[in-house]
Specification:
Strands 1-2 form a two-stranded antiparallel sheet. Helix content is 77%, strand content 7%. The longest helix has 30 residues. It has six helices and two strands. By secondary structure, it is mainly alpha-helical. The protein has a single domain, classed as Ferritin. It is elongated and about 50 Å long. The model has no long low-confidence stretch (mean pLDDT 92).
């Protein structure tokens, strides 16, 4: 997929987060382990919250920033990737966490690619803020899942 404006990148991130939520819901129904099901249920809720935050950001960000044009920012068809992703019913919490981090890092890579070609300082600042928020969110997510593992 090729993106031309920042708002298209954000819309893609929102669609991707929704697809992640659907993936985790599907995996929750397939998982054998009650602990894996509990983790996946948490992840579904988590993705809904992230989607809501991204949607709010898209609604509140300055039009000038959102309408900024980029050259050559490309990403993969993340929704299709989520639809094709599967883990066996015997999945462990570590399997789930590993897959989730791999998928999330792919989304962060898209933001990094956009940052590298951002045409103005305002757009760079907006993308850097998004990246920072995503990194913090990912760290909290990992810590939360590790605490679940201690239960």
């Amino acid at each position: 997929m090729r993106f031309q404006q920042l708002k298209e990148i954000l819309e893609h991130l929102i669609d991707s987060r929704e697809a992640l939520g659907q993936l985790y819901r599907r995996m929750e129904h397939q998982a054998d382990s009650p602990r894996a099901k509990m983790l996946l249920e948490y992840m579904v809720i988590h993705e809904k919250e992230v989607t809501e935050k991204l949607t709010a950001y898209l609604d509140e960000a300055p039009i000038k920033v959102l309408d900024t044009w980029f050259e050559n920012v490309q990403g993969e068809d993340f929704v299709a990737l989520c639809q094709q992703t599967a883990l066996p019913a015997t999945m462990t919490e570590q399997d789930i966490l590993g897959k989730a981090l791999d998928l999330e890092n792919r989304l962060l890579d898209l933001l990094h690619a956009a940052l590298e070609v951002a045409p103005t300082q305002d757009v760079k600042s907006a993308i850097e803020s998004l990246l920072q928020a995503e990194r913090v969110r990912q760290q909290r997510f990992v810590h939360s899942t590790m605490r679940m593992d201690d239960m």
